[in-house]
Amino acid sequence: MRWTEDAVKSLLNRVIKSSPADDTEVIFSAQNYGLTRFAANIIHQNMSEENALISIRVAVDNKIGSYAINQMDETILKAGVLKAIDIAKLSQTKPQFQGFAPKAEVIPLSQPVFNALTHEAGPTERADRVEILVKELAPYGFEGAGSVRNGTFTKAVATQRGQSVFQEETLYKAVTVVNRCGQAGFGTGYAESMGRKLGDFDAQALAREARSISEKNHDPSAIENGAYTVILTPVAVGELLHYLSWMGLHARAVQSGQSFLTGKKGQRVLSEHLTLVDDAHDPRTLSIPFDWEGVPKQRVSMIENGITGDMVYDSFTALHDQVASTGHALSPLRDRYYSSPLPTHLIIAPGQESMDEMIADTPHGLLITRFWYVREIHFGRATVTGMTRDGTFEIQNGRISQALHNLRFTQSLVDAFSQILSVGDQQKLVNQFNGAFLVPALKIENFNIVGSSTF
Fold first, then answer.
1. C-alpha distances in angstroms, 324 versus 101, 311, 327, 332?
2. How far apart are CA 120 and CA 130, in angstroms?
3. What pLDDT is attached to residue 337?
4. pLDDT tier, 182 (very low <50, low <70, confident <90, very high otherwise)
5. Residue 454: its pLDDT value, please?
6. How much is the mean pLDDT over the chain?
7. Do residues 424 and 441 make contact, with C-beta atoms less than 8 angstroms apart?
8. What does DSSP say about strands 435-452 and 383-388: parallel, antiparallel, or unpaired?
9. Do 434 and 246 touch, CB atoms closer than 8 A?
10. How do residues 38-70 score in pLDDT, each as one tens digit?
11. H or E element at residue 398
12. Extents of the domains making up the chain
């Protein structure tokens, strides 16, 4: 089912008109997507999901309550409004609350966000991509596992104060893990691809990328614990950047004193090689031009050559600092796990070196293709711990010398992003929990390896 703009906006406006609260905001989100999973070069599952959710938020005497429901019956929606009001009456007063988003112009994205092929593709079209991928693996003795998904996602926000915004977008994502099964000593290789047009997905290239990692990832050795120079692929960089952004790169963390940026605006806090912006209007990103409060998204220059710039805000953190929201409020569902606001379209400016040049310039170090099971330890220094996965290699005299067992690291991300030696010249769009980041490879010194696995 496709939700039209007129139908969605009409539904949200009817909910608002039915509300006796002082102020009301209604959010609509819908998804209609399919997923094909494969393992051992064989498709083993097709599934699809179609759902729509209404989230109602109300203010009563500066007390805020919310209620979510996935039934579109108007009687049930009106009851949902009353439930939200009941919840608001039990909540704490927010004296600074000034109302939900007022009417404001949202500049549409310059790039197309809807693709008919991606919307219409079903199991057959996804299977065609899996077949291409498998044909690039099987003749060489490799097996692939992973998934291909595509779908249409609809988002809209309306407020009692007149804001009304809508976007329908298509997305695809494909991932694969490749291994040479049946031959002892061979490890895995990983690759991912995402975009709006399923027709742009190059399944052959994805298979080759993962296969090339697995080909090198055999007969792994152990390595001593210590501080190493590491070269991180864009996938690995994206994982660390997600944790850095969640633990420190937003107004709530700064205001609470948890962030390493607290009191540091205008000061150099990270490497001079690092320039970081959040820009939903960059045509290379996968974004919407408004946030989940209906506020237009703004470009935010966060780090300029290591120097702290601006930060991202939602309406509540903006009130605290008496500034305007930058349009970075999270959805009601995502805010269960991450504190709003968050940067969701981070871009690291590219550098001058290719990954091959980074390796060639490294007398001794590690190449890390991917991280896994990363978890936070200390917010003040954005310290995390985790494992490497799907291809970790030792570099000796400018060449990859051997595969390594998966390694455990414990690392302050403030220190890591302060010790960047060089930045890759190619950016890649990588998927993260709180958005899609456009990032290059990074070469970082003194990265702390604290343990090794047996595989």
1. 11, 11, 9, 20
2. 17
3. 61
4. low
5. 83
6. 95
7. yes
8. unpaired
9. yes
10. 999 999 999 999 999 999 999 999 999 999 999
11. none
12. 5-216, 220-455
State how far the Cα of 315 lies from the Cα of 59, in Å rounded to an integer.
14
* Best CA proximity match to 67, nearest among 89, 45, 47, 51: 89
**Nearest partner of 440 among 354, 322, 317, judged by Cα:** 354
H-assigned helices in 369-419: 413-418
Query: Domain 5-216: what homologous superfamily?
Result: PmbA/TldD superfamily (3.30.2290.10)
Residue for token digits 């970075």?
328
Nearest-5° angle of CA 20, CA 26, CA 27?
Answer: 165
Round to whole Å and give the CA distance between 289 and 48.
Answer: 27
Question: pLDDT tens digit string along 261-304?
Answer: 999 999 999 999 999 999 999 999 999 999 999 999 999 999 99
Containing 120, the helix (H) or strand (E) segment is helix 116-120
What single-letter amino acid sits at 35? L
Phi, psi of 281 (to 5 degrees): -90, 0
pLDDT mean over 307-327: 96
Report how far apart the first and last C-alpha atoms of the chain are (Å, whole number).
46
Other CB atoms within a 10 A radius of the CB of residue 276 amount to 24
Contact predicate 208/332, CB 8 Å: no
Q: How many CB atoms lie within 10 A of CB 128?
A: 14
d(CA 248, CA 94): 24
At 76, is the pLDDT very low, low, confident or very high (cuts 50, 70, 90)? very high
Classify strands 364-368 and 226-232 as parallel, antiparallel or unpaired.
parallel
Question: In terms of Cα–Cα distance, which of 217, 242, 268, 173 is closest to 390?
Answer: 217
Tokens of 240: 């660390």
Pair of tokens at residue 157: 């926000």
Interval 225-273: pLDDT, tens: 999 999 999 999 999 999 999 999 999 999 999 999 999 999 999 999 9
- The token pair that represents 101 in the structure block: 């988003």
Q: Are 245 and 276 in contact (CB under 8 A)?
A: no
Q: Output the pLDDT for position 183.
A: 59
The 3-state DSSP class for residue 155 equals strand
